[in-house]
Amino acid sequence: HAADAMRTDLMTITRYVLNEQSRFPEARGDLTILLNNIVLGCKFVCSSVSKAGLAKLIGLAGETNVQGEEQKKLDVLSNDVFVNALVSSGRTNVLVSEEIEDAIFVEKAKRGRYCVVFDPLDGSSNIDCGVSIGTIFGIYMLKDGIEGTVEDVLQPGTAMLAAGYCMYGSSCTLVLSTGAGVNGFTLDPSLGEFILTHPDIKIPKKGKIYSVNEGNAMNWDAPTTKYVQNAKFPKDGASPKSLRYIGSMVADVHRTLLYGGIFMYPGDKKSPKGKLRVLYEVFPMSFLMEQAGGQAFTGKERALELVPTHIHDRSPIFLGSYDDVEEIKALYAEAA
Length: 336
Ligand code: P6P
Known about the structure:
Blueprint: H1 2-8, H2 13-21, H3 30-58, H4 74-88, E1 92-97, E2 104-105, E3 111-122, E4 133-141, E5 162-168, E6 172-177, E7 183-188, E8 193-198, E9 209-211, H5 222-232, E10 242-243, H6 249-259, E11 262-265, H7 278-291, E12 295-297, E13 317-320, H8 322-335
Parallel strand pairs: 1-3, 9-10, 9-11
Antiparallel strand pairs: 1-2, 3-4, 4-5, 5-6, 6-7, 7-8, 11-13, 12-13
Pfam families: FBPase, FBPase_C
EC number: 3.1.3.11
Subcellular location: Cytoplasm
């Protein structure tokens, strides 16, 4: 009966967010409008990415079209669509995009209360081989009526009020948390609507998968090296873990969220801060993991408690099943 209800009583993402909004009597619907504009951006990117393969034939994004005009690369195009969708929502104040060196300060006439940090097309280097890629975003709220500054987005992840990602793969899946658990929505192209398909996602307490780029093993520190060694040659007679590494954060995190296990991008001798960016990769994914019952660790502290000093700061990250992250935390505690 429940399955039938899900089929006929369509829980669209818009309806879900409106329901969420009703939890806050003082809400004015601003977050609903903001999220609707983010959803619009995701629908556009989903449509463009699915055509990317054809781009080479008909000269869409990233190629020169029949008129020989240089088309914008898909990640630049996606960035422009998100910036326009966010600014035109009239609900944003400061924007930080992976694609843009400096923060964007929305003009007074269109200013709202929210700061959005986002990577419009993370993993875009994987487009040409058809690997899933995604959009990642996080949302902070400012006090009413103030003019945002960079300091307003250099906040710890604990100050985020919502976060999510949209994965462009075999289907287009948007995973969102507004602070009361995690829900997954799948785009029904025939309706042009994201429909609730993964209600109240909880990550398994422990998993059998570890996800890391083993190509960096030469530069790893002792705790990471030991953790991976234990995963491959377990001392307690348990069976070894499986290694799954797609090299596209949204895809690796989505699998970790649904199947359990740990995703790691450690710091190492070459890059002590690792590779992934704090504001629009580490924080949103850590927020989702905690909301789904998992956890996220930087090698030194709870990832969400990090305070960034620059909008494109990087941080090492270990996130996923609660027990698996506990193991790596113990190894770092030993080494401290
Ligand atoms: P590496 C993609 O370029 C990305 O930013 C993330 O999506 C992904 O997790 C990571 O880099 C992969 O990095 O060094 O393993 O290729």
